[in-house]
Amino acid sequence: MTTAITLGRGSRLLTLYSYYSLFLALAIVVVDGVDKQNIIIAGKLPDLFLILSSLYVFAAAVFVALINRSTDSQGATTYLFLETALLTGMMFASGGLTAGFSSLLIIPVIMANLLAPGVLGYSVAAWLSLAVIYTEHISTGDFGIGDTANTGVYGSICFAIAWLTQLLSYRINAALNLASDSARQARRLQKLSQQALMKLPDGVIACSVDRNILFINDAASHWFKLKAGMPVPQKLANAKPEELIHARHKQLAVKRIEVDTDEGDFLLLVEDEDRMLAEVQQVKLASLGRLTASIAHEIRNPLSSLQQAAQLLSETKDIQPEVQQLAGMIENNSQRINRIIADILQLSRGKRPQSKPFNLKSFLEEFRAQFQRFTDYDIRQFEITCSDDITLSFDPDHLNQILTNLCQNGLRYAKKANGTDAQLGIRVIQETPDTASITVSDNGLGVADNQIARLFEPFSTTEHSGTGLGLYLCRELCQGNQATIEYAGSSQGAQFVIHAKCVSESGK
User: Fold this and answer.
1) Is the pLDDT of residue 192 over 90?
2) How many CA atoms lie within 13 A of 241 on its CB side?
3) DSSP strand E in 28-80: where?
4) Percent of the chain with pLDDT over 70
5) What is the CB neighbour count within 10 angstroms for residue 503?
6) What is the pLDDT of residue 1?
7) Could you report the per-residue pLDDT of 15-58, keeping only the tens digit for each?
8) Which has the closest alpha carbon to 28: 83, 80, 97?
9) Cys bridge to 25: 56, 111, 356, 371, which one at CB 3.0-4.6 A?
């Protein structure tokens, strides 16, 4: 049979037993001192009893001191053997088994079998049985049938108690092991669950009935600058499901879930609408890609034939001006339809964002140089304001496409308003350690108030030659990179602001 109760678990029991043993020794000395006639104890050999009781007090005091310093199994077992011998000697000095010490001798047997391995526990019972046999019979030469039978019964009781104690302690040890394993597994699962909750992209806030935060994950802590122990803001606790909360340039939906507990706790689930829209957009783009791929070929082939026929018709000799004009209209609108198809295909086949950190100042300088080469635009009228240490987390190809679209639109309207004095500008401001704003501005005519609401809708355009998909494509690409774009307006021209993630120094 294995160890009944390990020392680690039995240390408290052993400490309590050491104090019990010292209290018992002192009680015996006090009773012996009060009992001057040796009626209660020490009736046979009072001098021997006084010596043994004094030794018992000294041994118990030393045992208490040792146990309080360290729990030593060998020292504890040695003391149990010594205590059994001292108590047996005091029983002999008091008159034998009938003196009342027999019950006190059982307790060390129980302790030994609780704390020591099987054989060692039984050895204490055997040691006690031998000590009783020696003091009751061998030392006195009394081998009467009645006394011998009593001694045999007492020895059998000692071994029976040792067996029952070890059986009980074995079951206790198994239950403790099971409880320990369950507690360890529960702590492990709790850590895994807590880590999973901490790293969720959505926010999770656990609150008490008095609206104090019990737990908050990284996302919610970042959005609202809260931590455990702080009170929940009123706008969060009372937010309605259809209501959006703006925090850190994000639109957040808060859902309250009541937890079925006596304490009245509740959960607040905070979802990032921008991220959800980005995921929906990916699904939408995939569906649109399958649709456009199937019809692009069917549309483009007859469209190419129609455009080619219009070109041939316009090149015919002696063509009438009215026919020439109609052929030009056919060709121009065919080209427009072709651009619409190209933009839709570009949108539907857009690759998934491959966000990576890069230095924004270097990127913008290179973009300005490329933009000048392709548009023959004077770079001196294209101002870039950006600090050298801003690192953006974005798909570089997507950002290039967004800026190209915005700058082309801005340059076109700026030239209409100012001719050769058309100006463009890109200004970058790091708003927080984790976000930056990129403002693209021009000195054109701006956007009319009645057009702002539909600015980012598909096919919304004021240009006869435009497709109306440019700004819509910019918004979709921003959402795919967990960024936002908005029209900020301006007293001179137009301003579009992109709010994107950047990498702080601690995150590099």
Assistant:
1) no
2) 3
3) none
4) 86
5) 17
6) 43
7) 888 899 999 999 999 998 888 888 888 888 888 989 999 999 99
8) 83
9) 56
pLDDT at 5: 45
SS3 track for 342-378: HHHHHHHCCCCCCCEEEEHHHHHHHHHHHHHHHHCCC
Those residues whose C-beta lies under 8 Å from the C-beta of residue 152, and which sit 6 or more positions away, are none
pTM, two decimals, is 0.43
DSSP H or E segment with residue 47: helix 46-69
What is the Rg, in whole angstroms, of the alpha carbon atoms belonging to the chain?
A: 45
Fold of 356-507: Heat Shock Protein 90 (3.30.565)
- Distance (Å, whole) CA 106 – CA 88: 11
Domain ranges of the chain: 7-183, 203-276, 283-348, 356-507
Nearest to 425 by CA among 441, 409, 414: 441
Task: Please give the structure tokens belonging to residue 250.
Answer: 């994000």
Q: Is the pLDDT of residue 3 over 50?
A: no
Tokens standing for residue 79: 């003391």
Total residues belonging to the chain: 508
Q: Six-digit token pair at 215? A: 């737990």
> Is the CATH number of domain 203-276 2.40.50.90?
no
Given this model, what pLDDT does residue 286 score? 66
Residue 450 CA to its chain's centroid (Å): 47
Residue 68 amino acid letter:
N
